[in-house]
Write a structure and sequence with these properties.
This protein is 39% helix and 22% strand. It has ten helices and ten strands. Bound molecules: adenosine-5'-diphosphate and magnesium ion.
C-alpha cells in the first residue's frame, strides 16, 4: 500500500510543483498517471523514491514512512524505471547494470547470478546478459532497465513514460511484459491507449493537482474532460472522427 498525504514538493523552496496531493494505491493495483507536459508526473515519481524530499506532507509505503532514516528500506520496496534508460544503465555491461542494485543491497554473487538469469529468462532476453550496454538498441535498453528493477523484487514499481520512443512491435512487447508484472505499478505516460489497456485506474494531474481520477475506461473515454487537462482521447477511440478530419482536408 502506497499512501500520499497532503504532499507538497518542488525544486525550490516556496515554489510547489505538487500541491497538497492526496493519493493511495492498493497492493497489486496498476495505476496510470497522465497529464500534459509539466503537470508534475515525473516530480511525483521522484518524490516517491526520495530523490526529492517533501516540503510538506507525508509518503508511506507498506506503513514505512519515507524520510531520511528509512530511505534504504523504502528503496528496497519501491523502484523506478526512468524515462531515459541511460540515466539508469551506467555500467560497462548488461549483467553488471542489472546486478548493481543487488550488490548495493549486499546480496551474494551466487544469489545475484541466479536472480538475473531468472529475470532475463522471464523477459525472453537471456541473450543480452553478456552484451556490453552500449551495444544494445533503445528498446532493449528499456527492457534491461526494467529487468534491473524487477530483479530487486520491490513491491511497487514506478514507470516514467515506458513506451516513449519505442517502435510499435517493441511497444507491444513491453505492454505484454507489464501485464505479466505482478507488482503494484504506477505508470506515468502520454500513451493513453496503453493506459486504457493496462491500467485499473487512471489519475489525471493538472498543474500539480489531481484533476480527475477513476476507473481507466470511465476516465479515458471522456473527451471533454481529457481536453480540459490538455489531453486527447486515446487513438483507438478517435476512430472515424480521426480519419474523417484527415480525409476532409479541413
Ligand atoms: N529539475 C528541475 N528544476 C526546476 N523545475 C523543474 C525541474 N524539473 C521539472 N521542473 C518543473 O516542474 C514542473 C513539473 O515537471 P514534471 O514533473 O517534469 O512534469 P511532467 O513529468 O508531468 O511532464 C514543470 O513546471 C517543470 O518545469
Ligand atoms: Mg515527465
Amino acid at each position: 500500500m502506497l499512501k500520499i498525504e497532503n504532499l507538497s514538493v518542488g525544486y525550490q523552496e516556496g515554489k510547489n510543483v505538487l500541491k497538497k496531493l492526496n493519493m493511495s494505491i492498493k497492493d497489486g493495483e496498476t495505476v496510470g498517471l497522465v497529464g500534459a507536459n509539466g503537470a508534475g508526473k515525473s516530480t511525483l515519481l521522484m518524490s516517491l523514491v526520495g530523490i526529492l524530499l517533501p516540503f510538506e506532507g507525508r509518503i508511506a509505503i507498506d506503513g514505512i514512512e519515507l524520510d531520511k532514516k528509512h530511505l534504504k528500506e523504502i528503496r528496497e520496496r519501491i523502484g523506478v524505471v526512468f524515462q531515459n534508460p541511460d540515466d539508469q544503465l551506467f555500467m560497462a555491461n548488461v549483467y553488471d547494470d542489472i546486478a548493481f542494485g543487488l550488490r548495493n543491497m549486499g546480496r551474494s554473487e551466487e544469489e545475484i547470478q541466479h536472480r538475473i538469469s531468472r529475470v532475463l529468462r522471464e523477459l525472453g532476453v537471456e541473450h543480452l546478459e553478456e552484451m556490453s550496454s552500449n551495444r544494445i538498441s533503445g528498446g532493449e535498453k528499456r527492457i534491461i532497465a526494467i529487468a534491473a528493477i524487477l530483479v530487486m523484487e520491490p513491491s511497487v514499481i514506478l514507470f516514467d513514460e515506458p513506451t516513449s520512443f519505442l517502435d510499435p512491435r517493441t511497444r507491444r512487447r513491453l505492454i505484454r511484459l507489464l501485464q505479466g508484472v505482478p507488482m503494484t505499478k504506477l505508470i506515468a505516460t502520454h500513451d493513453l491507449d496503453m493506459a486504457l489497456e493496462l491500467c485499473d485506474r487512471v489519475i489525471i494531474l493538472k498543474d500539480g493537482e489531481i484533476f480527475a481520477q477513476g476507473n481507466a475506461k470511465d476516465i479515458l473515454t471522456q473527451k471533454e474532460l481529457l481536453e480540459e487537462a490538455g489531453l486527447e482521447l486515446p487513438y483507438c477511440l478517435q476512430g472515424a472522427e480521426y480519419l474523417g478530419t484527415k480525409h476532409s482536408g479541413s
